[in-house]
Amino acid sequence: MLRQSQSDDNPLASPERPLIALITGASSGIGEATARRLAREPGTQLVLVARREERLQRLAGELAVPTSFIVADLTDEDAPARVLEHVRSHHTRLTLLVNNAGAAWRSTFADGGYANVKRTMELNFDAVVRLTEALLPLLRASAPAAIVNVASTASRVARPGSGAYSAAKFALAGWSDALYAEERPHGVHVGVVLPGFIATEGFPARELLARAATRRIVSTPEHAAEAIVDAGLRGYAERYVPRPYYLAACARLLLPGLTRRVLAGGSSSVFTTQTGADAAEERRIA
């Protein structure tokens, strides 16, 4: 069962100092669930960022807390400056940044090449770094504050057909560790959330949900949102979702050869599921 909101668990906010949180990728999935979860924190104010205006507008209207939104593709050159300007025009502070927006296109390197690596890195790593750079001075000035980077279990264990995504998430996890050490003296905590299979629009996991043997390894956006609260408001260094997924990361460290052989085996292909980005590209081509 998910824990309920408790203001005592939230060192970033107080009755005199409300939580002001910005969530990227907020129009669906983990981002939407995070917005709904944070809206249960007393005094919260939200800034939602995504590409789909109608969904952002609908979500903002459903939340019982002050909520603004900005429509932006975070890979655009001017996106960080636009988001910063929006925050400054609506708030004097920013206490929580949730870097959640991301996508994956399944392809082997031989088939997708550098082009697939490039577009995957641009969204899942470069866009996060650029937005964080723009907002970091405001977070420092608002300290205590926090950044939560939504990485993936794929940032610890790579699978065939997902190399580009793992590369981006490995980079994000490594950068987050360094950023934590750098920003701790400035009062900005950096946490990492590492979801496994979460059933969302971007990662439907239909192949896994269709099989009784694999259905139980798929979690929900609501559990990921609670992990983001742990990493952001409660100061956790990192959280896996579901929690047992950390065993895969341990196996990669302790038994790298065996882990590689297992993941290279044909049976592991069951875990390479089609993503929402794959489906959108297929519709475009058709």
In short:
The protein has 286 residues and is of the alpha/beta class.
Give structural notes:
By secondary structure, this protein is of the alpha/beta class. The protein has one domain: 3-Layer(aba) Sandwich (Rossmann fold). The protein contains ten helices and nine strands. The chain has a seven-stranded parallel beta sheet with strand order 3-2-1-4-5-6-9, sandwiched between helices. The protein has a two-stranded parallel sheet with strand order 7-8. Helix 2 links the parallel strand 2 and strand 3. Helix 1 (29-38) packs across helix 7 and helix 4 (109-141) packs parallel to helix 5 (163-183). The longest helix has 33 residues, at 109-141. The chain is globular and about 55 Å long. The chain starts with 19 loop residues before the first strand and ends with a helix. Mean pLDDT is 89; it is low at 1-7.
CATH topology, which one? Rossmann fold
| Gyration radius over CA | 18 Å
Mean pLDDT: 89
Count of separate DSSP helical elements: 10
Low-confidence spans: 1-7
Strands side by side in the biggest sheet: 3-2-1-4-5-6-9
Which architecture name does CATH use? Answer: 3-Layer(aba) Sandwich
User: For the report, how would you describe the main beta sheet?
Assistant: 7 strands, parallel
Termini, distance in Å? 43 Å
Helical residue percent?
40-55%
